Amino acid sequence: MAAFPLLLLLCSLLLAASTAADQCHDDDHAALVAIDTALGSPYHFASWTPDSACCDWYDVDCDAESGRVIGLRVFQDTNMSGAIPDAIANLTFLQTLTLHHLPAISGAIPDSLAALSNLSQLTISHTGVSGPVPSFLGMLTALTVLDLSYNSLTGAIPASLADLPNLSSINLRRNHLSGTIPSLLLSKSPDQAYLWLSSNNLSGAIPAEFAAVDFAHIDLSRNALTGDAACLLGAGKSSLQHVDVSRNALRFDLSGMEFPENATYIDLSHNGIRGGIPTQVANLTNLQQFNVSFNRLCGEVPAGGNMARFDRYSYLHNKCLCGAPLTACRQRPINYLH
Ligand SMILES: *[C@@H]1O[C@H](CO)[C@@H](O)[C@H](O)[C@H]1NC(C)=O
Ligand SMILES: *[C@@H]1O[C@H](CO)[C@@H](O)[C@H](O)[C@H]1NC(C)=O
Ligand SMILES: *[C@@H]1O[C@H](CO)[C@@H](O)[C@H](O)[C@H]1NC(C)=O
Ligand SMILES: *[C@@H]1O[C@H](CO)[C@@H](O)[C@H](O)[C@H]1NC(C)=O
Ligand SMILES: *[C@@H]1O[C@H](CO)[C@@H](O)[C@H](O)[C@H]1NC(C)=O
Ligand SMILES: *[C@@H]1O[C@H](CO)[C@@H](O)[C@H](O)[C@H]1NC(C)=O
Ligand SMILES: *[C@@H]1O[C@H](CO)[C@@H](O)[C@H](O)[C@H]1NC(C)=O
Ligand SMILES: *[C@@H]1O[C@H](CO)[C@@H](O)[C@H](O)[C@H]1NC(C)=O
């Protein structure tokens, strides 16, 4: 007889306990409500209602122990519009912030985000955000990954990014950035470094200091960079797999240089590179993509090794390259030293 009410009591106790565990901290709850309000209560946040625990809300991630909100990941909504809400900065325990593919989100990256001292991964990509890459990012010392790609950011890359001790990945591709590349960018990277700066309007030289950075992937393509790429080539770059410096204004002599031994992807196309192709390229067993087209190279294309992988489209439009897969060299060796 007494078993039934007891069971009910037990059930409601269990329900209360699980709700408490999923309920985020009051301050985080208030911040989330303020974010929702600032964005005009978009349909995207339809699950953000008082009758469900805020750790269960769509896009919200809580730390299991503390119940604090540590992640906010808002993806893929062409309707959501307005500026990035300052209220995000009130999620003081935030470690991951992702705003991705929200093309109607606009305005500048707000200064308030400087307060997020625990932020480790910041992604604001494929949005309508404009204004500068803020220099306050150099104060977010916990940052490991910064992705501000596919926005409309202008101005220079702040040198303060070089101060970040744990930052190993920077993606600023497809913005309207100008000026030079900060010389110490990623010089403190504790791990293999990843850098995407392609499709901007960056000028000046590739920093010589890059020679000391342990890059795994570097893409500087489609800018207005000048000088040489010697700091990315050369022996001892055994981590470097992907090098793309295509479509710049680099002018240097490639003869006698060495490619990174483990490279899988090398694109030097559309520059003003002269000299010959180093025969060592034939020794790169992992190389899948090789493009030196639209330069001023001359002499015989190296043979042997894996060179049969590359057709004439790797060598188009140079000064006087010859040999398979291009037409045979007339005499060997061609005198291109004048
Ligand atoms: C975007 O707005 C349109 C028109 O108001 C609506 O049909 C659609 O469901 C909305 N999409 C999202 C993801 O909110
Ligand atoms: C952040 O929290 C503080 C203190 O709770 C509050 O006064 C402020 O209005 C909040 N900021 C925003 C933008 O919601
Ligand atoms: C950052 O997180 C740690 C725990 O991981 C916490 O002690 C600290 O208060 C947090 N910082 C801020 C500003 O909330
Ligand atoms: C950098 O990363 C290390 C290892 O993960 C961590 O112990 C350290 O606290 C981090 N530094 C900062 C400033 O967050
Ligand atoms: C790129 O920068 C140069 C100056 O360095 C400027 O003259 C040019 O207008 C810029 N181009 C674009 C597309 O912003
Ligand atoms: C690069 O290649 C060398 C041999 O040339 C090898 O010992 C090394 O493990 C490779 N490094 C990476 C990161 O693949
Ligand atoms: C290519 O590899 C072979 C065999 O390991 C070596 O003898 C030769 O010196 C290498 N060539 C270059 C240009 O590095
Ligand atoms: C190399 O780049 C040129 C110019 O962008 C392109 O036409 C060609 O197809 C590329 N070659 C390969 C092998 O990808």
From TrEMBL:
Keywords for the protein's UniProt record, in alphabetical order: Leucine-rich repeat, Repeat, Signal
Domain Leucine-rich repeat-containing N-terminal plant-type: 25-63
Matches recorded under InterPro entries: Leu-rich_rpt, LRR_dom_sf, LRR_N_plant-typ, PGIP
Localization in the cell: Cell envelope
N-terminal signal peptide: 1-21
One Pfam assignment: LRR_1
Top-level division of the source organism's lineage: Eukaryota
Family statement drawn from the similarity comment of this UniProt entry: Belongs to the polygalacturonase-inhibiting protein family.
Name of this protein: Leucine-rich repeat-containing N-terminal plant-type domain-containing protein
Organism listed in the record: Lolium multiflorum (Italian ryegrass)
